[in-house]
Amino acid sequence: MAKVKYLSRRVLKSGKVKYIVNPPDYVKQALKVEYHQFEVNEYKKALALAYSISDKYIEYKRKVKRNLHIQEDSVYGLVAAYKKTAQWDKLAVNSKVLYSDVLKRTLILRIGTSRNVFGDMLSRNITVAQAEELVAQIKKKTSAHAANASCTVLRKIWNVGDRLGYVKTFPFKGMGLKATADRTFVWTEEQVFKFIDTADEMGIRSIGTLALLCYDLCQRPGDMRQLTWANLGPDPANQNEQLFSFEQEKTKTWVEIPPSPRLKERLENAQASSNWHDCILYNENTGHPYIKQHMEKTRLIRSAAKLPKHLQLRDLRRSGATEMAEAGCTNSELRSVTGHKTMDVLAIYVRKTPKLAGAAVNKRFAKQVPATSTVS
């Protein structure tokens, strides 16, 4: 039986496995959605759709129950109009989640002494001064990064609003916000395995495996969290070896990476789920695949391991890439693993270290022969 609403696994008479997203008729009618069928290697797409439909129907029921009416000319109305456009539809699933999170915390704020929350204010009446105050308020209460994110999303919504004729001014344009600095934190190998050992001791072995996947494959936690056993198969060039083959969700880049010996050993000891899904990682208590909200466990593990608070799972991708560069990997080799298309983007992940500088000097002067002194 499926453990995620509207999602099921079906084995055809031919033996072929399909994932089915099939909400009941009343949900289909309410949300104007249809039956969808996915191949076995499209599991994460099926899962994302099922979660999306479930979330939308919860919101639909909430609005019906409370008989809510959103004014079309309010900021809430402008956001609702934006979510019906092609600009919203073409966003990746992760981007939609990010935008929704940003809007959720921004629309409930009150600008200054306003009686209404920002979402209930008339979109056409939002002034530059109010936009400045809103962004400053977010920056003070949360962070500069959160303020930049809110401004970026609202700017896009206002641009769409202008095209639709909902607004005539651009209060979030040209605010001159300073870009937040790129993260530079890297984990040491000792810290990585301290985290993994602590996760194992706490009975959350799956999160330890997630950390090793991110670290050794130099990938984002979101992609590693959604890996299935179908993504791990024999190397076509060498049937005795294995390859992880998957599409990176953010960039749609297809990568093929062999697991490290230590990762291969850990996966050999991993228990496949007896549940309906094929995910490599799943919650030990529920048997369900991990979703983004479950990643709070990483903080508990980091705290128990007494590791620095600034370390995050997303830094493991950078940490692994930097170690590969220090080991002498070429740019092409690095990009084959990380999936980066250009060196400009790759440079964000590979940090400059004394070891890299030392390797560069050694390569430069490797062929030079020390001068011999002569004694007269």
Number of E strands: 6
Kindly name the structural category.
Answer: mainly alpha
By CATH reckoning, the class of the largest domain would read Mainly Alpha
Count the domains.
Answer: 3
Q: Strand order across the biggest sheet?
A: 1-2-3
Number of helices, counting only DSSP H or I runs of 4 residues or more:
16
- Low-pLDDT parts are none
Quaternary structure type: single chain
| Radius of gyration, CA atoms, in whole angstroms | 25 Å
Helix content: 40-55%
First CA to last CA: what distance?
91 Å
What is this structure's SSE topology?
Blueprint: E1 7-11, E2 17-21, H1 25-31, E3 36-39, H2 43-66, H3 75-82, H4 86-89, H5 93-106, H6 128-141, H7 144-164, H8 189-201, H9 205-217, H10 221-225, E4 232-235, E5 238-247, E6 254-257, H11 261-268, H12 297-304, H13 315-326, H14 331-338, H15 343-349, H16 354-365
Antiparallel strand pairs: 1-2, 2-3, 4-5, 5-6
Fold and architecture overview:
Helices cover 47% and strands 9% of the residues. Strand 4 (232-235) and strand 5 (238-247) form a beta hairpin. It is built from 16 helices and 6 strands. The protein has 3 domains: 1-68; 71-181, DNA polymerase, domain 1; 189-362, Intergrase catalytic core (hpI Integrase, Chain A), CATH 1.10.443.10. Helix 8 (189-201) runs antiparallel to helix 9. It has a 3-stranded antiparallel sheet with strand order 1-2-3, with helices on one face. With 376 residues, the protein is mainly alpha-helical.
